Amino acid sequence: MSTVTVAHGYRAGHTLPLRVEAVRQLKRRRTLVMGAILAALPFVLIVAFAIGGTPGGNDGGGGGGGGNRINLMDTATASGANFAATCLFVSAGFLLVVPVALFCGDTVASEASWSSLRYLLAAPVPRARLLWSKLAVALGFSAAAMLLLPLVALAAGTVAYGWGPLELPAGGALAAADTLPRLGLVVAFIFVSQLVTAGLAFWLSTRTDAPLGAVGGAVGLTIVGNVLDAVTALGSWREYLPAHWQFAWADALQPQLEWGGMLKGAAVSVTYALILFALAFRGFARKDIVS
Question: pTM score > 0.85 for this model?
Fold first, then answer.
């Protein structure tokens, strides 16, 4: 009968603390570069609007054609809140996909590429503990990226265009007091909708030793999903694609808040994400770690 000897004071649940992993990831160059890009985007748009005139394309002149329908780009300079909403609109389809894929896809594969993964496990850090720590930190940094862009945009837009009601795409405006909760709901839904990309990237990260392969694979598959959603011949099958619901947050920018599309989109995204996370943990638990 064999016995397992455990070192005095060893607790599996205390290995690889989240604080240690978060500091490691925060100090990495790709984290700083990604943060700088997201923080710079609002200022790039402000300069573009200043050079090119009003976003509607009429350079501030009159109420020419296209005035029958209000959209986010047409009202981007109406207030700081409108500018923040516009930044989310132009970045949600691709730019915000990149940090999620980067933080979730690089986290495990990078350890393997540095040949440090086996040493972490020999520490000994249980495999499930290692994945939970890395996934939690990756999702935390992804959420921070989602918050950084609108916060910077809101601050910069308020300085450039002033604070005021949020003009809505369907017409009318939200009172200033209701603006921040609605924008917060938009950001929360965008984060939930990106959980599919996070799941893809994290699963691929446990399957390969090439970080760029995991990140690029997740971004590529997300793009494929967007392409398939554009194929109208698929009909109602598109509703099972996470990409079909990626802009359902526009329902939050209505005079009367609509929940239907966002709830369906969140359910689809969370379902896919849970399956992918489960595959990552299951595959990693059986994987022969040689790097």
Answer: no
